[in-house]
Amino acid sequence: MTDQAISSPAAGMATDVAGPAGPKPKRLTASRVGVYAFLIIAALFFLIPLWVMIVTSLKTLPEIRLGNLFNWPSDLTFDPWIKAWTTACTGRDCDGISPGFWNSVKITVPSVILSVFLAALNGYALSFWKYRGSELFFGLLMFGAFVPYQVVIYPLIIAFREIGIFATLPGIIILHSIFGMPILTLLFRNFFGSLPGELFRAARVDGAGFWQIFVMIMLPMSVPITIVAIILQVTGIWNDFLFGVVFAGRPNMPMTVQLNNIVTTTTGIREYNVNMAATILTALVPLAVYFISGKWFVRGIAAGAVKG
Fold it and tell me: pLDDT band for position 238 (50/70/90)?
């Protein structure tokens, strides 16, 4: 029997399976059509309002009054964007939303760093350095995630006033860090709980202590869940209105509060193009965060959901 005869059945089988032009395309089933139809409808549901906002922000007021809500502007202008950033009135001040942008940065950056670090530390301690009552402590911490913010606003106002940090930048930073702690601790605890315990035990045998293991082993391995925590905190703190209007104080008003003051003003001409431009400018940071790190978000959520 020749080599050609031996190899011919395998070659024939490969031809039957793969075909002359490679693998066969998947069939277009009813379920697949339904999934794609749902995805298209969902995308349009979110994209159509965004389209209206963009084209309205690029139109002049006379063109807006003509209607034609979905039409591209015939007289393209970026003046509403410039006015929204620099000269739009947010109450008695007419400096645009640029001061609110920098206030939001000053609030968001330290709040994210503090809350993510403390949550990672809590999750690490609750996973590998369990102590008597640790599960009770974790349960109480999780209970805090389900307490409505509105219930504790007045007690927090009294407490912050008594210690002298109400309507200050440190006060609003501490507040965001505290309220971000429960859900972030849960994420980090689940992630660290999914890691092999042999890593921790081997480090302990080698003489590593609490902080050495945390900084040199656990933190480098927790990059995916850390990115998830950063995304959640950045978007949550940046989009916050309630805490900003109550606890930030007038000098530290975040961007969302100033946007509300622009949109809800009742004096003068209602400039819809400026309102839309200010709204898009306010939403740019969360959108950029999601677009840049979206794949990491999915990976981190999957990694943090292995154990409960």
Answer: very high
CA 187 to chain centre: 14
Q: What is the pLDDT of residue 89?
A: 87
**By the 8 A CB rule, do 120 and 188 touch?**
yes
Nearest to 252 by CA among 175, 182, 179: 175
Rounded to 10°, the helix 79-86/272-303 angle is 80
Question: Residue 71 burial by CB count (10 A; 0-12/13-18/19+): exposed, middle or buried?
Answer: exposed
Q: Which two tokens stand for residue 133?
A: 């009552």
Higher pLDDT, 26 or 249: 249
Most confidently predicted of 12-16, 30-34, 251-255? 251-255
Nearest to 107 by CA among 244, 232, 228: 244
Report the distance separating Cα 176 and Cα 147, nearest Å: 14
Contact assessment for residue 246 and residue 167, using Cβ atoms and an 8 Å cutoff: no
The pLDDT mean for the chain works out to 84
The tokens 């104080």 sit on which residue?
A: 249
What's the Rg (C-alpha) of the chain? 27
DSSP H/E element including 182: helix 169-193
The pLDDT score that the predictor gives to residue 195 is 84
| pLDDT over threshold 80, residue 202 | yes
* pLDDT reported for residue 77: 92
Distance CA 83, CA 59 (A): 13
Sequence spans of domains, the chain: 3-77, 98-303
Q: How many CB atoms lie within 10 A of CB 296?
A: 17
Alpha-carbon distance of 251 to 163, in angstroms, equals 19
E strand or H helix at 39: helix 30-57
Q: Identity (one letter) of the amino acid at 17?
A: V
Fold designation for 98-303? MetI-like fold (1.10.3720)
User: What pLDDT, on the 0 to 100 scale, is given for residue 4?
Assistant: 47
